[in-house]
Design goal:
- Helix 9 links the parallel strand 9 and strand 10.
- The chain has 15 helices and 19 strands.
- A seven-stranded mixed sheet has the order 11-12-13-10-9-15-16, sandwiched between helices.
- 51% of the residues are buried.
- With 465 residues, the protein is of the alpha/beta class.
- It has two domains: 256 residues, Aldehyde Dehydrogenase, Chain A, domain 1 (3-Layer(aba) Sandwich); 191 residues, Aldehyde Dehydrogenase, Chain A, domain 2 (3-Layer(aba) Sandwich).
Length: 465
């Protein structure tokens, strides 16, 4: 079945791509498997040269690939360029550090002797062909943060990207080819989601990583579990943003706006639930609502646009249903809550703030993937932490406080993969990234990410002979 990309700013079909047939899928898997046999034997230095070249080419292409991402999924073009630059940084970071991150580990000498060995060490070896199932919301960054460490570790990658960003997927394949990576080191599979199981069950595919929805994660984890193949899952999030009495409220409110509407509000790590202590609730609410109301909504290709369209018509419909359900049950709309006037051709939705929310509303436990903020008043720190944890997700969290005791309590008790203090959640190559509960398992980035698809091999040397 052909794969069509549609511009979310005006609903126009951009391009149609032919999906791979069974023979095409087989050819890609076979090529990747054959390439791994030699790629795993290359040195870190050889791999780093190629990854640095890819970073250089991407830096040159940043403006063009930004426009491509904007056209395919609606990201404001300024943010798209920033995404490309972030990928350049990650490539260079792993090119510089992969060898040290995967250096042999040597146990304490006394423990080695106690094991009966003359010597012992742990070495990291690549697993092989890794299937990456990636989402549309950060179509470049999500892939690069897998590909850079995986390739530097000696693995090879097969990318099944979201069906609305095939152009970006093919660009990545071409980028790495132009940088000099061998044919088969990184290949794009233009396939539908129904073909993923076939690829994952292939014995030549060693592991998988998925960033995406909870249903997609469950599906991949189920198949991988049946095949006993390792996986890393980064799924949804409904991150809390706690503002406590000692916070710099003005700065918290300003950051909260960006934290909510980055990427048009379509980010797993976007702050979505704003939990504010009663002592600063009124001030924060006024500043936050004013900031959300002032955002410029419009054509994502316009340099001045701050919020563009949602990526799909269905995505907007899902968001509207959550807002309508909440309002029907007593929630108040402080700003937004509707489609903006004059933008009828695209899938736009106004930046929105809802308050007076209750647990019976669907939005209380659902992930809002769009520019809608849920605002809660908390009478105490205990209530704030309880509200923060009242979610099936646990990707990250944000805490605004200048009180060391309050901060220690939040770090101890917030059930999330990260606690970002006096700032918004963001991923960085040096910091492990991932969540708990229904936000997934495993970690990307940093040393944790590069070791996720390596075989930690124990080497024990005795005196026998």
């Amino acid at each position: 079945m052909p794969i069509a990309t549609v511009n979310p700013a005006d609903g126009a079909v951009l391009r149609t791509y032919e999906a791979l047939d069974a023979a095409g899928i087989e050819e890609r898997i076979a090529r990747a498997h054959e390439t791994f046999a030699t790629w795993r034997l290359t040195t870190f230095g050889d791999r780093a040269v190629l990854l640095r070249k890819a970073a250089e080419l991407l830096e040159e292409d940043a403006a063009d690939v930004a426009r491509l991402m904007t056209a395919e999924m609606g990201k404001p073009v300024v943010q798209a360029r920033a995404e490309a630059v972030k990928c350049v940084k990650a490539m260079r970071w792993y090119a510089e550090r992969a060898e040290s991150l995967l250096a042999d580990e040597h146990p304490d000498e006394a423990d080695v002797k106690d094991s009966g060995a003359l010597a012992a060490r742990v070495v990291y070896r690549p697993l092989g062909v890794v299937l990456a199932v990636m989402p549309w919301n950060f179509p470049l960054w999500q892939v690069v943060r897998f590909a850079a460490p995986a390739l530097m570790a000696g693995n090879v990658g097969l990318l099944k990207h979201a069906s609305n960003v095939p152009g970006t997927a093919l660009y990545l394949e071409d980028l790495l080819r132009r940088a000099g990576f061998p044919e088969g080191c990184f290949g794009t599979l233009l396939i539908g989601s129904g073909e993923v199981e076939r690829v994952l069950r292939d014995p030549r595919v060693a592991a998988a990583t998925l960033t995406g929805s909870e249903p997609a994660g469950r599906s991949v984890a189920s198949v991988a579990g049946d095949e006993v193949k390792p996986t890393v899952l980064e799924l949804g999030g409904s991150d809390p943003f706690l503002v406590l009495p000692s916070a710099d409220v003005a700065k918290a409110a300003q950051t909260a706006v960006t934290a909510r509407v980055q990427n048009n509000g379509q980010s797993c790590i976007a702050a979505k639930r704003f939990i504010v202590h009663a002592r600063v609730f009124d001030e924060f609410t006024e500043r936050f609502t004013e900031g959300m109301s002032a955002l410029r909504v419009g054509d994502p290709a316009d340099e001045d646009t701050e919020v563009g369209p949602l990526s799909s018509e269905q995505g907007r419909a899902d968001l509207e249903e959550l807002v309508e359900d909440a309002v029907a049950q007593g929630a108040r709309v402080l700003c937004g809550g509707r489609r903006p006037a004059g933008l009828d051709d695209g899938w736009y939705y106004e930046p929105t703030v809802l308050t007076d929310l209750s647990p019976g509303m669907r939005i209380h436990h659902a992930e809002t993937f769009g520019p809608v903020a849920s605002l809660y008043r908390a009478a105490s720190l205990d209530e704030a932490v309880s509200l923060a944890n009242d979610t099936p997700f646990g990707l990250s969290s944000n805490v605004w406080t200048r009180d060391a005791v309050d901060l220690a309590r939040c770090v101890r008790d917030l059930r999330a993969g990260g606690v970002f203090v006096n700032g918004m959640t963001a991923s960085h190559p040096a910091l492990p990234f991932g969540g708990v509960k229904r936000s997934g398992y495993g970690r990307e980035l940093a040393g944790h990410g590069i070791r996720a698809f390596c075989n930690a091999t124990t080497v024990w040397e005795g005196a026998g002979g």
